[in-house]
Amino acid sequence: MFQPAYQAFDIAAPAREAPLAEILGAFSYALDLTEGQPAGHSVRAAWIGTYMGLAAGLQGGELADCLYAVLLKDLGCSSNAARVADLFLGDDRSLKQGFKLIGPDVTDFLAFVEAEVGAKEEEAARREARDHLLANAAPILTGFIETRCTQGATIAKRLRFSDRVAGAIAALDEHWDGSGMPRGLAGAQIPLLSRIALLAQVADVFFMAGGPARAIAEVQARSGTWLDPELAAIFAELAADPGFWSELAAPGIDERLFALAPAQARIMVDEDYLDDIAIAFGQVIDAKSPYTGGHSERVAWLTDRVGAKLRIAAPERRRLVRSAMLHDIGKLGVSNRILDKPGRLTPGEWAAMQSHAQITTDILSRISVMRDMAAIAGSHHERLDGTGYPLGLDETSISMETRIISVADFFDALTADRPYRAAMPVDQALSIMACEVGDAIDGDCYDALEEIVAEGLPEAPLPAMPSALTL
After folding, report:
1. Which of the following is catalytic: 157, 288, 331, 341?
2. Does 331 participate in catalysis according to the annotation?
3. Could you tell me which of 278, 277, 339 has the C-alpha nearest to residue 78?
């Protein structure tokens, strides 16, 4: 396995305490984006789930696991986005949002398919897509959910969570009566934390769509079918208190969640753990599109090498590599109908695509220990001549850290397959980039990249992230 250049240095840093719940709570906003949910869905669901856990008698580590299982329930959600967009012929984010709002009966699903599949396409394409979905609904839905749940559980382990948390995420879509997916578990076969997470999800989705009354009604309607009836009864008691809903709706729900006892358990987050968090969410990002698989990892690898050539000190380069790994996290907020479009984007689609850079900045700005990375990562599409986005920065205000990520991103974008063209040979990519030196990319960064290419790129796939903790 290729090792990062900075491992030649002694970069051990004193371990520091950091609020893990705050870090992952901020990243959960990215998960909300790719699920098409109103901002803060995961945090609100975790708040509901934690109070459910308390009322159900959970304590200590099990209660903390409950909070994290609900907060991170959608870790695998990006992995089926492209397939949803392709099969349903629509915006995966709005389709996912609408799917969570349909009723529990088969007729509700049929009505959703009739109304939503290919809604903006010509009738022949719409009918073909609908007929295919209806004829293959069970295997298609099982595949969607199995991919999502398996990926989510794997990433939870990457984040160092217990089998209990990973198992809860893996069984999120199982139903009390055995009608869920992917394994058809029933009753007590379903982990308790999965049962809590599904109820909390239903409650928040319908609360945001129609207020407390609708949330209460939906939980009651699904009790004994989707939902554990004992947990539904506990929820009914909590929901009878108007203060429960006013707390949930009031500003500052993040702070109230982080103030709860399980979130207050101070977990050591050292440099290695921050690397693992970046790796995990890099995998969430890259799972969004079949055309970006491994992109974040390759950009991180190249960023490390270019930074080393430019004599960026090892500790700073380590943080820079995390920025590179997370530079595209804003793409979780862009529909795969745009990300994977084979033709030219319309002005509206191009504006949506460009928005990912600002979203990256916004998400990373939420995280105190990564706030210094926000502008660096979010500026990777700025150009030295001032014609880039999102802010139109120029050579006077684009940092060297951003310039390094930009050249790595540019090179990988050219040498990987894209929906509108095949991967370019390395020589051709370098030739195109040479013409952009001084306008789009920095000359010193380009020279460093040329040296790296001349020394020989590793065979694909690259290692996960150049990190001291790469497994």
Report:
1. 331
2. yes
3. 339
